[in-house]
Amino acid sequence: MSLAPVNEMRSLPLLLCLAPALSLGQSADAKLYRNNILNVQFEHPKAWKVETNRRNESRILIPIEGTQETALLEILPVTFESEKDIWLTAQKTVVANARYELVRQWEEEILRVPMLLTRYSFPNSRGVQVATSALLYSDWPRKFFWRLSAGAFEYEKAEFVWRQVLQSLRTVDGTEFKVLDP
Asked: Is the pLDDT of residue 20 over 80?
């Protein structure tokens, strides 16, 4: 019985460190990203530079704290109505055809729906870049697909900030996504 308070006390410093980041949704420094085609919205820092074209494709520049570098977050509406394995195999093929290095593929759950992720690295004029692409495997007609890329040294910081923002991900219409059943 005495272990519970000790464990709670150990996690308290972590919670206190994360509290400013977790309160993004209540901050005056937050803006709302909304994409009706994808039926998604989330709150992000005002410092992010968001551009969305007529096809509802978004390019978002994310400043990397403590550096002059930025990460690129791309959000695209994707049509996909097949098995998870087919998506993952297709992503693996795209990475191989581009001669990039596949780091890993895995699955997570967000909004009670699988998110299929692929991480890879590739060289460019600025050095080695790391990218993760993900598809929200929902029954919505246009799937939420995102790709985050940054320099290898900045990638973890960029992903950390993006993961914090993803905590605010919601549907625009207030309904729950359902898992795709092809």
From this structure: no
